[in-house]
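User: I'll paste a sequence; please echo it back and then give the predicted structure.

Assistant: Echoing your sequence first, then the prediction.
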Amino acid sequence: MRTDSSPGTLPAREHLPATDAGTPVLDVVIPVYNEEKDLQPCVRRLHEHLTRTFPYAFRITVADNASTDTTPLVAARLEAEIPEVTSFRLEQKGRGRALRTVWSASEAPVLAYMDVDLSTDLNALLPLVAPLISGHSDLAIGSRLARASRVVRGPKREFISRAYNLILRGSLQARFSDAQCGFKAIRRDVAQVLLPLVEDTGWFFDTEMLVLAERAGLRIHEVPVDWVDDPDSTVHIVRTATDDLRGVWRIGRALATGSLPLDRLTRPFGDDPRDRDLPDVPKGLARQLVGFCVVGGLSTLFYLVLYSTFRQFSGSQIANVLALLVSAVANTAANRRLTFGVRGRGGAVRHQAQGLVVFGIGLALTSGSLAALGAATDTPAHSTELAVLIAANLAATVLRFLLFRAWVFPDRGEPASDGGPTVVAACPPSSRAPRTTPPYGPLPTRPAPDRQQAYEPSYPRPYQPTHQTTQVRAGEAAADGDRRDATVRLQPVRPHHDTDPGDPR
């Protein structure tokens, strides 16, 4: 019986291969809105740090969110002066929209972003992306709430950050520690499948992405960071907190109703060859042992209660037979459903009959133990009888599990799920996988030396998702989960002043 999930569309993680010096391995996106003052020192400092410490080719992308000051001019000047810098213009605001747009169009295998204020110490950048390059993790985040982190910020922001993460843990069972730190990275193959499921285009984008990734079983690596608060931040705290709470409610409702196709994001069970399917190795043994122990513990308590009840008006042997018979029927039914995952009524009578044979073995062990106790003493105490029965039941439990697994409920393949038969359907990419052509324009290639000459963007090879096989119930239609915001238009930055007002946030 298989207990691992469907392999989905993501292959097993692998270390990124060595590439030519001109091919960027890392694309660091800096989303900005009216940051004419901080943009140039941020980009130059980041470029100097990457040039000095990062062992792979990289690119820095400035994602301008409809700025109304001279930010586009600063970005264009940096692009002209620094070969590794590219600028990108969006006509709509939203940090999430900027990240999803640029990440969807980038050809770099590792995608990252950081805030323009560089509140996070850049020494954490290489530890952030190294697990993604090595294939160990799918996403990586900086955490200001880790024990090893050193953070300088006011009590108001500290309280809001910790309260928000407590809400995520309590409502969405999130296990990551810091959702809103502006210091994250993701593998491109994961982003191509995950981003279409992320609906938010603002500040909740990070949280939604992390929650979906965690629920799908992707590995999230956390890096303790040194972080200094920016006193000149323009983030509207109250409005952002309100939008985040709305996002938490929306995601919680979607997870509760099962409307998110998270099976797209699952990877094979175990990337290590030692964890893959091997001949003659039992499948699902660990989960079945846990289920059998839980059911066995409850059945033992039920048996002892019945024995104590029947012992009031009968001898020990008769009370033992009656209690063991009733508890054996309940135990077989519970193990059939909970431990071995057998659904429906088919074969229930046969399973109970086989369970009674196993019951006979347990009866022989417990009755023999009581007989031995009676031979040892004429009037054994009730507590002594219970202790002997517990020991005998423990011995019978081991044998019962082996017989259940090998004889009563043998592994005959995947069981059908509740609610109807399960069919295996080969889902074409158009119905269960992301689009083969990204809806946003790709990042433009660097123009010719003549910077005044207009250039045409070069379109990278479109993403081709793996043709997948997934399980769906009979008669259930596969829903299209692609929720990309198709209204965003991307344009290369031109040296002009754009006065689109945009959202004040």
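The longest strand covers residues 58-65. The CA atoms of residues 42 and 398 lie 64 Å apart.
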